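Collaboration report, partner site 2.

Our partner group contributed sequences for two proteins of shared interest, and the home lab folded both. The records are reproduced in the order in which they were received, starting with the first partner submission.
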Amino acid sequence: MTSQALAAEEALAAALALDRSRAAALEIAQRAVTSAERVSPAPGSETDRAIRHRAEAYRVLGTVYAAFGEWKDACVAAERAVSAWRQLANAGSTMLVQTEADQAERLLLEASAHLP
């Protein structure tokens, strides 16, 4: 899947969540995660690009779960997103997008706050 296609799926999932279309939003967000997980990049920055796509896809999935109050699943997805962003940060990658990493961190904090 291309970067543009992944971004389009993520945007569509977010829009559907805002529209309260749970099943469609989750299906698209989960498809984006599946696509991001399947990327087998070449060594170098392509590896970082794959990690970035995975981070973005998990953040979107977590955001969709959060939109429907499914905090446990939102927390799991946010943890995966944060983990991927931290992997990029620790490697000093140019693929790190700090604002998106911060969004994932905030999502994790929010989701965690709703758990017992």
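Second partner submission, folded after the first:
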Amino acid sequence: MKKIALSLFAVIISVSLFAGNDIKVSFCSGGSKITLKELSICKVLTVSSDDWKIKTATIGFAIGDDFKSIKVVGDKISDKLYHNLKSSSSDKIYIEQIVLVNSKGEEMKLGAQTITIIK
């Protein structure tokens, strides 16, 4: 009985630790979809948790048969990156190599996330 209780406790702790990492990154708090018009107004990467900010990320998208990746430092995307996205034929933006930082200076890496461009 003691082993079952300890096992159950361990499962609950591990699930709660991993469940806390449901943090998402998007443009302008728009979720997983955005229009180019919305992006032209905002040009900001947002985090679904107020405790974390974007330190760095890589934005990837298709340009014809090529794939372009641009590193972003901080939460703002440059006008050049926006114009590259606008002129591309891509309907997806890939946010990869995401590094977040909190107020204590602690860093956390997130997995890649995909944003759909609504035409």
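Feedback sent to the partner group on the second submission included the following. The longest strand covers residues 53-63. The chain has three helices and eight strands.
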